[in-house]
Amino acid sequence: MTGEPRGGRIVVVGASLAGLRAAEALRAKGFAGELTIVGDEPRPPYDRPPLSKQVLLGRVRAQDVGLPRRRAVAARWRLGVSATGLDPSVKRVLLADGDRLRYDRLLIATGTRARPWPHPEQAALDGVLTLRTVDDAGRLADRLDAGPRRVLVIGAGFTGSEIASACRERGLDVTVVERGPAPLVGALGGKLGALAADAQRAHGVDLRCGVTVSELRGTDGRLTGAELSDGGRIDADVAVVALGAVRNTEWLTGSGLAAGSRGVACDAGCRAFDMYGIVTDDVFVAGDVARFPHPLFEYQMLSLEHWGNAVAQAEVAAHNMVSAGPDRRPHLTVPAFWSSQFGLNIKSVGVPTFSDQVMIAQGSPQEGRLVAVYGYRGRVTAAVSVNRAKWLEHYRHLIESGAPFPPGPGAADGPPAPVPVPSDVPDPAALSHGPTVALTGHLPDRRLAVVHRGGPADQHSHDQEQP
Amino acid sequence: MQIIVDLNRCQAYAQCVFLAPEVFELHGEEALMYLSAVPPEQQEHVRRAVAACPVQAILPGELASIDDR
User: Fold this and answer.
1) Bridge partner list, A363
2) What is the DSSP letter of B64?
3) Contact (CB<8Å) B64/A20
4) Sheet holding A300-304: strands in order across?
5) pLDDT at A423
6) Which GO terms describe its molecular function (chain A) (predicted)?
7) Smallest Cβ distance to A79: which of B8, B34, B66?
8) Inter-chain contact A68–B2, Cβ cutoff 8 Å?
9) pTM here?
């Protein structure tokens, strides 16, 4: 780190939850220098979880989900303009409007965006939507208000399932098409996926699993329906593409950072790696776009699309940005997330996809309340509660302490002899569209060749800017 | 006043639902829904809910805006 850790210029790229919380933490920790926050949406930071729940149910207007700030951040906000490039050798961020922002330290918190429907002309049909931003949520809520004859939801991850739940609660007919064997399989495995499938069908969702949408059809530019891979047809005037998220890393192409479709790799202290795996001193990463090693999960690189991870990782990144080496902290938070759908409150701690077995430790699917505990090679690695949130703290402790799996009896309402069964987690090499945790330690995106300084000129190489 | 509830922390004790039912509501057995933008006449109720939450999951503040220098 150069200069005074509590002075100088810090640029935060990404004006969502992680960016805001990092900015607040920087000021809270005494950063007195110049702070600039760049965001590609023309609005201050807001909260996303209500967009697929309260907003779609019509309880909250899309524009009312702003985030409370905990303290003044005294930042220069550059909203409505995206970052288009980074040159770490001269410490500059390039913006779409041509501006260049100089920094001493940089935080990358650019998050993810909705994965679009792959066929642009079909995606452009009126009635084909995605759900990621406030504007998306406002548009979808308006469509649901208008009373469509049928809503087609493509993909049954958490977002798709929550959209389907809101539609059913409004009394709308909804078809969900999921390529996997059940909803939520990518995130929770097959055992709880089967429970999710039952819940959807019990609430009147026309759920089609093991099927994909092969074409979205339209007349006069308006969506009329879809063709399915099994030969089926759906008539629908609204289709929501819920095929997961794409990490916003394209702007880092050529920057020399270890950035790709799985995120920006960093160490446990949120410091970005360059393309050779060398840690940087002045570039930090936090939130959905980060990819970091977690000791509880055998130092696998994890990418987490979790609200709680954005908060916790942003605070660690901010702390480390203004702290000298020995005072820096690792980001070791146990991953956790929640979803509510079809009357069920689903909460998770740990990494359910990091498992080979699962067992129902408390409750049962029949009761509609349970805790499923996941294990990997004899250790507890995750727990998922359905309408049983109070127990998760107990399991979080088991995960943190590397307790043996299956865990010993500890609950009054456990089944007589809980039996571990295979967790049926999909192979991470073939990532499904909907995991909220991606194990990214396998399969490098590409092999890198070492470029020696003084080699062939490359407009992005560091060689150009040597003093 | 703007609020956010850390739903990782929330364990559905529902103290907020008793104290500020216009703002907080249980959806099903234990899924909490709430209004992020608290209407002025509800702010005192919400302050009580913030204090009463056993896991301190309700985070109040002013709306984050771009002119908070």
Assistant:
1) A370
2) P
3) yes
4) A259-260, A263-265, A290-294, A300-304, A437-439
5) 84
6) oxidoreductase activity, acting on NAD(P)H
7) B66
8) yes
9) 0.91
The complex's ipTM? 0.94
The span from the CA of A42 to the CA of A39, in Å, is 7
Instruction: Decide if B42 contacts B23 (C-beta within 8 A).
Output: yes
Tell me the pLDDT tens digit for each residue of A52-75.
999 999 999 999 999 998 888 999
List, for chain A, all residue ranges whose pLDDT scores fall below the cut of 50. Answer: 1-2, 434-435, 441-447, 455-467
Interchain contact B55–A (C-beta under 8 A): no
Q: Which residues contact A321 (CB under 8 A, 6 or more apart)?
A: A5, A10, A22, A26, A31, A105, A107, A284
Judging contacts by C-beta atoms under 8 Å, the chain A residues touching residue B56 are none
pLDDT at position A449, please?
Answer: 52
Structural domains for chain A:
9-48+61-113+246-327 (3.50.50.60), 116-243 (3.50.50.60), 343-429 (3.30.390.30)
Distance from CA of A227 to the nearest CA of B (A): 35
Taken in order A335, A60, A342, A371, is the CA torsion positive or negative? positive
**Chain centre to alpha carbon of residue A373:** 22
Among chain B residues, the shortest Cα distance to A53 is held by: B33
- Confidence check: pLDDT of B19 > 90: yes
Q: A66 vs B6: CB contact, 8 Å cut-off?
A: no
Whether A79 contacts A92, CB under 8 Å: no
Max distance between CA atoms of chain A, in angstroms, equals 72
CA proximity to A433, closest of A156, A131, A132: A156
A170-217 pLDDT, tens digit each: 999 999 999 999 999 999 999 999 999 999 999 999 999 999 999 999
On whether the CB atoms of residues A92 and A101 are closer than 8 A, the answer is yes
